[in-house]
Sequence to fold (313 residues):
Amino acid sequence: MAGERRPYRYNCGTAHRAIATVAYEPDSGDPRRRNRRFHSHLAGAQGVAGSQASRAYRDSWLQAHCGACGKSVLCASSALDRIWAARCGVENLLCGPPKIVENAGHAARQLARPIEEMGIRVVDLSEKVFPSTEDRQFASDFLRSLQQPIIAIHPGSGSKEKNCPLENWIALFSRTGGFPDAEGKQGGHGKFPSLVVISGEADKSQTEQLESEWKDRDVRFAKNLPLPQLAAVLERSIFIGHDSGISHLAAAAGANCILLFGPTNPNVWAPRNKNVRVLVAPSGRLSVLEITRVEAAITAALCDWSVEAGSES
Fold:
């Protein structure tokens, strides 16, 4: 902390307590219970703004997390957050942006500016998560029967416009699609990678189609996994996805990421990690992104995996 000697305790904003719970309590309790707590706190904080229950929830949360320390710092993005923080005696208030602005730099840089205004220089904008021993054990058990390397794909995102057509994913991973082996050779004799499909509740329709299409193949489907466990599953994979939260999780976990961007700007929204390669679709339309470009990126990633595996053996 440049020029700052007083002790500070940093608290995420009330609407983001779930993120703080996952970040600061990685080893506490059952991961499914953590995920339920994640959503219950999020729902409580984002309840009807004018309701008595919502006000009581936020007041009690602020008192518990900020009132005990007068020099706490609360990251707030709304006028209501500021009012509640003042009522609870917060002395130093960080005000984060209510939304990301497209022409104001990378999203992470925009979110870091309130901290930099305190004299704390943020030099590394890459994302990092650290799976617990228990989550890594889950991943080991989940992937045990699969041959390395692991290619994990997430065909969804928060918007249909940000998704490659499902038929492109099917063509990319079809038996006759020219998919390379772990040595990067077309039709070679190296280790053929295993395929894991990541899906959540919003991806149900796509997942059902892929399950039907690949019913005779040894494809593993990772459905609705708690985020800490999913991070551990993705940790050592080659990951292919879109502009989505799961892609950020994969990058933070250390996966070798190939991210397909369409209408959104990767200079604002793509993870800044060195383990991320971005392919941008012409005219922002993922439907016209050539499969050969994705295949070439996968071939390069498999070559990298082969080199790393050789150096570890």
The radius of gyration is 22 Å. The first helix runs from residue 17 to 24. Confidence is low (pLDDT under 50) at residues 1-50, 67-74. The first strand starts at residue 10 and ends at 11.
